[in-house]
Specification:
- There is one protein chain.
- With 187 residues, the chain is an alpha+beta fold.
- Helices cover 20% and strands 32% of the residues.
- The protein has a single domain, classed as VC0467-like, CATH 3.40.1740.10.
- Strands 1, 2, 3, 4, 5, 6, 7, 8, 9 and 10 form a ten-stranded mixed sheet that branches.
- The longest helix has 11 residues.
- The protein is globular and about 50 Å long.
Length: 187
């Protein structure tokens, strides 16, 4: 496996990041190496049910508590599944201990048709799209102070209300969110 740089970790968008796709975003950075970076915005739920969205064959017969999230601006027609305590197998990639990701419809079906508890928001999330950076792009944005980097905290990511996650993650670094001005650095 290539060196994973900062992954896994959390990226916290700073006010000077002028891309509206990332305003107050918290990105779970899953991969970061010399080929680029990949992550998912973890504080933007989409208010649509997985049953309405998914085109599985055969179709879902019942509702599922699986929540749908906006993962980022890249390939929003594609779904990704993040699962806590999911089995690492041929259809999944381990992000870190206790977290796997997959874009496999087989894995998605296995989660949905399995123990209903596995579809709860504190266990699994379905993301539309992802956040991606080309080689060196994220490193450049980090050097320009567009992002703060924080250690991954799965409990915080999966149990904090989405509207509170950015501030809570900033505070986990010992920074008061009101001390962050829309200019490089913390003031």
């Amino acid at each position: 496996m290539p060196d994973e740089g900062l992954a896994p970790s959390l990226l916290l968008a700073m006010p000077q990041l002028d891309d509206p796709n990332f305003n107050r975003a918290v990105v779970l950075l899953c991969r970061h190496n010399d080929e680029g970076a990949l992550g998912f915005i973890v504080n933007r739920p989409v208010h649509v049910s997985a049953k309405e969205l998914l085109a599985l064959d055969p179709p879902l017969a019942t509702e599922t508590p699986l929540t749908v999230w906006e993962g980022g601006p890249v390939s929003q027609e594609r779904g990704w599944l993040l699962c806590r305590d999911g089995a690492v197998d041929s259809g999944t990639l381990e992000v870190c201990a206790g977290l796997v990701m997959s874009s496999s419809p087989t894995v998605l079906r296995r989660v949905i048709d399995g123990d209903p508890r596995n579809c709860e928001p504190d266990r699994s999330r379905l993301f539309l799209g992802y956040s991606g950076w080309g080689p060196g792009q994220l490193d450049h944005e980090l050097a320009a102070a567009a992002w703060l980097n924080a250690p991954i905290d799965l409990d915080m990511v999966f149990t904090t209300p989405p509207d509170d996650l950015w501030e809570r993650a900033i505070r986990s670094l010992g920074v008061e969110p009101t001390a962050i001005a829309p200019a490089p650095g913390i003031h």
